[in-house]
Each structure stands twice: as structure tokens, then as C-alpha cells.
Specification:
The chain is 40% helix and 23% strand. By secondary structure, the chain is of the alpha/beta class. The structure holds flavin-adenine dinucleotide (FAD).
Length: 458
């Protein structure tokens, strides 16, 4: 029998960051990672300034990661293949860091896990899958299969950093209803002609999301949204949203190289903790990758969990563990909600063809062009630096009012005014309703943490 204070299932971005954050509080941590992804996995590569700052604080930005990753400075949005672009730059957010980073996903996860493993109090078992957890009043027993051999580990805190398909989350009785709305298909393009190297590019004008950013000095990642099922083909209209030179480069690579594909999943579980148990990173919520906020959310979860455990002095007063976990859950709730709402609202505003979204889109770009404060707030929300749902709803309502001006200026000529007005009213009401906690969710906040009876195998 092995003994640790905390066991973390999953050594991806959330698992590595959480290991470093918990170890700093004095806890002895074991990370079990069943097998890190290789270069074929399409997942997070670009991360915003808050994630850079937090990874730095956790001591995970290795010299190799710093020297290999590309600096990134914000987003550049293009309303068609010849549009000069609208820039939302990180440096516009007061008190924020001015740059993010971008690098290939498997390199990033490997670097973070190695850096976490090098820290005092962190032990990493690779080739180790957490199979089941058995919660008892005095702690949890975790069954692990490590290089084919069964192992049993006793701990006080079990953390699921297993990603969006977390099995331990389900075992702990946390309800999550993932919805797989689309897929993203991507390629690595050598010497790509990106109009704004160092920015996350979002190409509009087609029916679905098209994204591109540099992951190396001579290489870019280009990704396209396609339907959740059906052939792995990028619609011609989506490709046509790219500038000519980039489109030609992408078409050449598409013709000869295999694509990488990932599901786009939206998920906001009702809870993030049970007695002696917490979820972090994608296991605790994820959204459309358009906002590139997943990595920032993983690292923020890790920091918050570490801080609440330290505040409650869990190392010297283990009985305060559950109180710390409740504080962790409360502390992250608003940020998760804001992130999920923002990604979905932005995806609709940028790509949906309905009359209300056409005018909202026009109003949104007008807002960004005219208002430095508007750009500041938008980039703050996109980078997760602002995580206040009220700010998001206020901005959405304000841009909807601007959309009315757009309609008035056009004199209703080429816009179906009534459907546009009805659509804007419906969407504002819908996001407002999504932002308000359901009665059942409110009730859970006043109940003691559920005890887990986790005898089932994962
Ligand atoms: C196409 C795409 C593009 C994206 N682009 C961006 C982007 O540009 N920027 C951004 O910030 N975010 C982006 N994201 C989101 C980002 O990839 C995720 O938020 C992030 O990878 C989540 O990390 P995680 O550690 O929570 O989970 P994962 O990355 O899923 O890692 C989970 C780890 O746990 C291991 N594991 C699972 N179960 C067990 C178990 N029982 N025992 C042991 N090990 C286990 C797995 O092997 C895996 O290594 C993107 C996502 C997608 C799909």
C-alpha cells in the first residue's frame, strides 16, 4: 500500500499544474498518467497571459518551453479573405501581461509534466491508470493499474484531471451532460502566410469557425470547424474565408497530409467537488476552442485549489479539507459559467447566418473599432482575466442595443427587422436565463458535500 496526501488522476495540463500547486502547500502528491498524447492529438496550444503568469508562479515554465514556444499577442479577426483585420491585443488590458504563448500540444504537456515531476513533493507514475476509488470516512483508497500491475494508494484527496470524459467525476455522483456540437479538423502548415504572425487568427465570412496561429517560427496550426458527424471534409465556403495565399498553402497540405480531428464539447458540470474529491481542468468544464481559454482555465483551477487548501491549512488540519473544497467550488463557479457562455455567444455572433446575428456582428466590429474600453473588456473576457458573468451579459446587451442602431442606419433595407429584433430579444433572455443558477443547483450549495461510495471499477 502506498500513501500520499493527494492522488491526481491525469497528468495533462490540469494534472501537472495541480500537482505543482498542491505540492507548494506541503502536500505529498502522486500524479497517475495513463499515457500522454502524441503529435496526432488536436488540442490546446495557444494560451493567454493569465496562464503564462500562473504557470510561471508554479515553476512550470521550463527554459526549454520558454525558448521553444512562440510569443502570442492577442487575436486578429478577419471578416473576409481581403479584410485587413481587427486586432484585439493583450496589452490593452490594464495590469495584464502583454503576451501569451503557443506551442505544439504534446510538447507542451510533456514539458509541464516533466517540470511538475522535478518539484519537491511530486511523484509521477507514467503508464498508470486510476481505475477506481473507494471512499471511506478517514480517506480514499485508489486502485491503479501501473504498467500492467495493480497498485493500491491511500490518500485524503483524490483529484480528477482526466479531461472532459472523466470517469471518476461520474463515480463521485457529479452530473455532467457533455454536448458534442461540432468537430475541429486541423493541419500543421509550414511557412504559412499568416497576416499577423504572433496573433490567434479568426477567419469569418464562411459558415463555420476557421482558426490559425503560429506554433513554431516556421509552422502554423490551421483548424476548421466541421459538423459533429459526416465526412472529414472542410466545406469550400469555410476555406474561402482564408486569404488567397494561406488558402492555397492549406489546400496543398490537405491534399497530401493526414488531418488531426477532435470533438468540440461543451460541458458545465453541476458540481466540482464531493467529499475528499475535486475535478480540475476539462473534467470540470469545457467550451468551444474559439476563445482558446481551456489551458488558462486548467491552470486557474490548479491555483485556486492550491490557494484554498493553503488558506484552510489543510496540511496541519486535515479535517478542514471538505471546507476548502467547497470554497474551491464556489470560487470557480462564476468563471466556468462565464467561459462557457462567452464561447457559445461569440461563436454564434461571429458565424450564424440569421438576421439578428448579422446585425449583432456588424455592431460588435463597430464597437471594437470605436471603443478602446470595449476592446479592453472583450480581450479581458477572452483571456479569462475578467470572469464576471454580469460583465459578459452587460456587454452582450450593450452590443445588442448598438445592433438596433445598425438596423436604423440601414433603414431596414437589407435586414429582416422583425426576425432580427425577436432574435436579439430571445438570445439576451436565453443567456440571462443560462447565467442564473437553477433552483436545484442553488440547493446543492446548502447541502453537506455528498459522501462517495465508489466501489465500481472505472
Ligand atoms: C481542437 C481543440 C483545440 C483547442 N485549442 C485550445 C487553445 O488553443 N487554447 C486553449 O487554452 N485551449 C484549447 N483547447 C482546450 C484544451 O485543449 C483543454 O482545455 C486542455 O487540454 C485540458 O487539459 P486537461 O489536463 O484538463 O485534460 P486533457 O488534456 O484531456 O488531459 C487528461 C489527461 O489525463 C489522462 N487520463 C485520463 N483518465 C485517466 C485515468 N483514469 N488515470 C490516469 N490518467 C488518466 C489522459 O491520458 C490525459 O493525458 C482546445 C481543445 C480542442 C479540442
Amino acid at each position: 500500500m502506498h500513501e500520499f496526501d493527494a492522488v491526481i488522476a491525469g497528468g495533462g495540463i490540469a494534472g501537472s499544474s495541480t500537482a505543482a500547486a498542491l505540492a507548494r502547500t506541503g502536500l505529498r502528491v502522486l500524479v497517475c498518467e495513463s499515457g500522454l498524447p502524441d503529435e496526432r492529438r488536436l488540442a490546446g496550444e495557444l494560451f493567454h497571459p493569465p496562464a503564462v503568469a500562473n504557470l510561471d508562479r508554479l515553476g512550470l515554465l521550463t527554459p526549454e518551453l520558454r525558448s521553444t514556444a512562440m510569443l502570442s499577442y492577442g487575436f486578429a479577426l478577419f471578416r473576409g479573405p481581403t479584410d485587413p483585420g481587427t486586432v484585439l491585443a493583450y496589452h490593452e488590458v490594464p495590469h495584464g501581461h502583454a503576451y501569451g504563448l503557443a506551442t505544439e500540444h504534446s510538447f507542451l504537456t510533456r514539458q509541464l509534466l516533466s517540470a511538475a515531476a522535478a518539484q519537491p513533493n511530486v511523484h509521477v507514475w507514467e503508464g498508470a491508470r486510476v481505475l477506481a476509488a473507494d471512499a471511506r470516512p478517514h480517506g480514499t483508497y485508489v486502485n491503479v493499474i501501473r504498467n500492467g500491475q495493480p497498485e493500491r494508494v491511500a490518500c485524503r484527496l483524490l483529484v480528477s484531471a482526466e479531461g472532459r470524459a472523466s470517469k471518476l467525476r461520474k463515480q463521485a455522483g457529479i452530473i455532467a451532460e457533455p454536448s458534442a456540437t461540432h468537430r475541429l479538423i486541423g493541419w500543421r502548415i509550414r511557412h504559412a502566410s499568416l497576416p499577423f504572425p504572433g496573433f490567434g487568427h479568426i477567419f469569418l465570412g464562411g459558415p463555420a469557425t476557421a482558426l490559425a496561429y503560429q506554433i513554431a517560427p516556421d509552422e502554423a496550426r490551421v483548424m476548421f470547424e466541421i459538423p459533429a458527424s459526416g465526412p472529414l471534409e472542410v466545406p469550400t465556403a469555410t476555406l474561402a474565408s482564408l486569404p488567397d495565399s494561406l488558402r492555397t498553402e492549406v489546400e496543398q497540405v490537405m491534399g497530401r497530409e493526414r488531418s488531426a480531428v477532435a470533438k468540440v464539447v461543451t460541458l458545465a458540470p453541476t458540481r466540482a467537488v464531493a467529499s475528499g474529491f475535486a475535478v480540475v481542468g476539462d473534467a470540470g468544464g469545457c467550451s468551444h476552442p474559439l476563445t482558446a481559454s481551456g489551458i488558462s482555465a486548467c491552470v486557474r483551477d490548479a491555483m485556486l485549489l492550491g490557494e484554498t487548501l493553503a488558506d484552510e491549512q489543510v496540511t496541519v488540519a486535515p479535517s478542514r479539507l471538505d471546507r476548502a473544497l467547497v470554497r474551491y467550488e464556489t470560487g470557480r463557479r462564476r468563471a466556468v459559467r462565464t467561459r462557457v457562455l462567452l464561447a457559445s455567444a461569440l461563436r454564434d455572433a461571429l458565424y450564424r447566418p440569421e438576421p439578428d446575428m448579422q446585425v449583432l456582428r456588424e455592431a460588435l466590429f463597430d464597437y471594437w473599432h470605436r471603443s478602446p474600453r470595449g476592446r479592453q473588456t472583450s480581450i479581458g473576457l477572452l483571456t479569462t482575466q475578467h470572469d464576471d458573468t454580469t460583465t459578459l451579459l452587460r456587454e452582450y446587451a450593450g452590443i445588442s442595443l448598438r445592433a438596433l442602431n445598425v438596423m436604423r442606419a440601414r433603414g431596414g433595407d437589407d435586414i429582416a427587422v422583425v426576425p432580427a429584433l425577436a432574435g436579439l430579444a430571445r438570445r439576451n433572455a436565453g443567456y440571462l436565463a443560462d447565467a442564473v443558477p437553477r433552483p436545484a443547483e442553488l440547493l446543492t450549495r446548502f447541502r453537506p458535500l455528498p459522501r462517495r461510495h465508489d466501489h465500481a471499477a472505472v
